[in-house]
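ARCHIVE CARD
Drawer: 12
Card no.: 0347
Subject: one protein chain, sequence and derived structure
Cross-reference: see card 0346
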Amino acid sequence: MAAPTAAYRDVPLTQIRRTIARRLSESLGPIPTFYLTAEYDVTRVAEMRTAMSALGDDYKVSFNDIILKATATALRQNPAVNAHWLGDAIRYFTPVHLGMAVAIEDGLITPVLFNADAKPLRELARESRELATRARARKLSPAEYTGSTFSVSNLGMFGIDQFTAIINPPEAGILAVGAVESKPAVVNGTIAIRQHLRVTMSCDHRVIDGATGAQFLKTLRQLIENPLLLVY
């Protein structure tokens, strides 16, 4: 009599998955985390993207590229968020090294856009595409996915409206970005269809107080809702 077919399969952990599991265990338990959610009007972002795309492929940028640039700029203006918890000290960074979460077959990897605050939008867009492509092809060196000072995770392209992301220690925060949605809004006293997205910031309360996180999201709102501030 033939043996029954197994109803499961065991897959050994890859090194990346082992690292992810270890870092998540380090994060959720010990870190006192609180969450701040904001909703932004990104209609002007959509209009700017359309105008830039009309100039040719060299000028095309994604919503995510603009969010990365806005986040890096907001971090430069709010250095209390651009920090690491070291146990016996808080390290505040002058440059912004922005981690961007990329889904790969083994889980999640976070390549780093070094000095992201100092790079023009088009350069940041080009570099983010290259890093994401190389991450999915498993061609990143360890130096390219370590050393971030703050991270961004975007699941909007999967239709997720809103979510919370887990802080990658020793970083003090991470920004979770949802999908862009068209919805009615009151503009100058009349109803208009506008494009909106929600972001949720996970904050390590040992480093970031509520007012500090709120001020960062306020700066981010100004930049995202007035995206021409990001083009220089």
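Annotation on reverse: The chain has a mean pLDDT of 90. Helices lie at 15-28, 43-53, 63-77, 121-136, 210-225.
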